[in-house]
C-alpha cells in the first residue's frame, strides 16, 4: 500500500537520531509530513538523502526524532560523564 502525503510542515530545530555502531548521530529533519496509509494518519519526519527526501523511520538504524537542543544537551552530558570517569 502506498503512503499518501496529505500535508508538509516545517521542522526547524528537529533531528532524526540514528545508531551508528553504538554511537548516536543526528541528521537534520527537513520537514514533518502528515501521511495517510491503510486508513490511518500519522506524522512522520523526513530527511534529505542526497538529492532526495525520504522518511527517517524507513532508514536503517533509525532510533527516534528529537529536538536538536535536547540531543545536544544529552551529548554534552555524556561527554561530562566520560570526563568524570577518566579522573
Describe what this molecule looks like in 3D:
The mean pLDDT is 88. The protein starts with a strand and ends with a helix. It is built from 1 helix and 6 strands. Strands 1, 2, 3, 4, 5 and 6 form a 6-stranded antiparallel β-sheet that branches. The radius of gyration is 16 Å and the shape is elongated. Helices cover 22% and strands 56% of the residues. The chain has 87 residues and is α+β, with helices and mostly antiparallel strands. It has one domain. The longest helix is centred in the C-terminal third of the chain and has 19 residues, at 68-86. It has one helix at 68-86; strands spanning 4-10, 14-20, 23-37, 40-49, 52-55, 62-67.
Q: Quote the average pLDDT.
A: 88
- Reading the helices and strands in chain order gives EEEEEEH
Structural class: alpha+beta
Q: Estimate the strand proportion.
A: over 45%
Q: Helical residue percent?
A: 10-25%
Low-confidence stretches: none
Total DSSP helices: 1
In whole angstroms, the N-to-C terminal distance is 55 Å
Largest sheet: 6 strands, antiparallel
Query: Based on CA inertia axes, which overall geometry fits?
Result: elongated
DSSP strand tally: 6
